[in-house]
Amino acid sequence: MENRNRTGIPGWKRGLLTAVVGIGMVLAAGAYREQSTEQEQAETLAGYDAAESVSGEKKKIALTFDDGPHPVYTEQLLDGLSERNVKATFFLLGCNIEGNEEIVRRIAEEGHLLGNHTFYHVDITKLSREEACAEILDTSSKITEITDQPVEYVRPPFGNWNQDLECEVMMIPVFWTVDTLDWSTRNADRLVEEVVSEVEENDIILMHDSYDSTVRAALRIIDLLQAQGYEFVTVDELILE
Length: 241
Ligand code: NI
Hints:
The chain is α/β, with parallel strands linked by helices. 46% of the residues lie in helices and 13% in strands. The protein is built from 8 helices and 8 strands. The site of nickel (II) ion has 7 residues, from strand 1.
């Protein structure tokens, strides 16, 4: 579970995220424009293509799933993502990894991004430095043991992050722009409708792979938004762009 307000993050965080992504998009768009004139002209001749954003690139969006791995629903989700050739981001709880190591391995092997959601779903800002770092480092090392890959991203539970926190490794916090409140709704139809009607280019969507309704909704959302030309990417592509 995350915050209970609609956007899930304080306005300043959303603003900051938007600003960072915005600057990135402007830079990316500038670099892209030079090499794509020919392609753009061809597209202009072909008429307006809803699949493309102003920059001429495909509109990107990131699905993120917190609180897993779940022994049943994570694999159902992975099956559906694989069928659709879609990559997503999974922020794992350290305490859910034991017994589900094969699922964690599969997430990594299938090209999804793995991130850290603390060990026991704690509010990092309410802990001492030692406790906070243990929450993060223990979770990362469990993931790395299985995947042999470093963990660079953290989704702070409740969106509460301490910018001054210094552990042995630097973590990049990842917030969200659309909070589906799927843990509360548990209704696939409503989730699909809300997300599809609200979503915009570069959105980071927060969901939880802990519910059957979320898995069903996520796959339908993908089908509908792919048809509208969206491309699903892992969050690093949106944040570092
Ligand atoms: Ni959570």
